[in-house]
Amino acid sequence: MHLPTVTLLALAINLIVGIYLYLLYRRKPKDRCFKLWSYSCGFFVLGSALVAMRPYPIPEFFSFFIADCLLLLAPVYVLAGLVQFSRFRYTKRRRQLAFVALAIAITIFLLSYPQPGLLSIMAALAIGLTFCLCAFLLKKSIITEPIFTRTLQAIFVLHALLMFVQAALVLFHWQQLNIHGLPESSIYTLLSHILLTTLTALLLPWLSFLKLERKLTLKSQRDGLTRLANREHFFNQLEYYWQQHPYTPAVFMMIDIDFFKKVNDTFGHAVGDRAIASVAKLLSKQLRSNDIIGRIGGEEFAALLIDIDEHTALQVSQRLCQQVAKQLKSIEDAQVELTISIGMVHVIPSYHDHVTAFKQADEALYASKQAGRNTVTLGKLHSA
């Protein structure tokens, strides 16, 4: 298969895929990634078309410089679409650095286009590095489907390797370059590149679908007011911890806002809701990221402090009481003077089931209420 045929095949496939992606964007305009990826296919089609015209008497500025700029923009727009699926923080400074890097690459293309071989090397290296960045962003993806993300990541890495191989072929066959600035042996890398480009374009939309699925899953697991785990998800996490860490000590903690009914009756339910949200936010900040916390009732929370002893847990719980009393004296203009009461038990999962731990922590919470509130009670469990 000679290069013009390969190029025509690439034009047809990527044009269809680009139209498909743009239609997805029109269907879901909030997902800008579809528009960016459709532009990526469009740039690849236009760049390939200009490459195909190199044997004809058109200015080299268009058939080489503009063509390779468009071919570079194809993975750049793939990269831009991947940003919204990554935990990578795309700050203003990083955005500026990205534009500077792109401007430098285009300037290098402009300076080297009179020498087709040199331009081919520069373009291949730039495209390869861009696909490396795509693989890096996907490594930090919020999508938790390992098979899918690793497959797409492997495709990006293969893209990059092919481009580096193409640059090496040009360098090693510098004296035998054709009109396109490429050696005849590079036809195989071009075929592979086209195949991977098409496969990438078909797989990319699944990122958006998986993100939507993840969003719906998180929504079903979170309490709408506090964004903590809801009751069902909290106890599911609790069961999982009991199964996975049978010998790791932990502290089960029940937390209740004191005199919450009075807050609602005095200041209204809107202030009451803000009070619950404020306590939840403070608890989340004070506890460790690996601790499990959830809202299991109206003004009631539960937490599992992982791998901790009784003494440290008591210090943590007393600090929670102190911080709530200190920081939540008022909610906006309402002088609510919030406090919390805590009941807790120290557990080893293999010795105590989570239902018993919950019951004993709840009884300890009741004891804290009876003792005057804004206090901590440590309950005791007997080994089974």
Automatic annotation (TrEMBL):
Known EC number(s)?
2.7.7.65
Which SUPFAM superfamilies would you find in this protein's record?
Nucleotide cyclase (SSF55073)
**Superkingdom of the organism of origin:** Bacteria
Q: Which reaction does it catalyse?
A: 2 GTP = 3',3'-c-di-GMP + 2 diphosphate
Annotated TM spans: 6-24, 36-56, 62-85, 97-113, 119-138, 150-174, 186-210
UniProt cross-references to PROSITE patterns, sorted A to Z: GGDEF (PS50887)
Q: Which InterPro entries match?
A: Diguanylate_Cyclase, GGDEF_dom, Nucleotide_cyclase, Rev_trsase/Diguanyl_cyclase
Record key words, sorted: Membrane, Nucleotidyltransferase, Transferase, Transmembrane, Transmembrane helix
> Is Transferase there in the keyword field?
yes
Domain GGDEF as annotated: residue spans: 248-381
What GO MF terms are annotated? diguanylate cyclase activity
Would you tell me the protein name for this molecule?
diguanylate cyclase
Recorded source organism is Alkalimonas collagenimarina
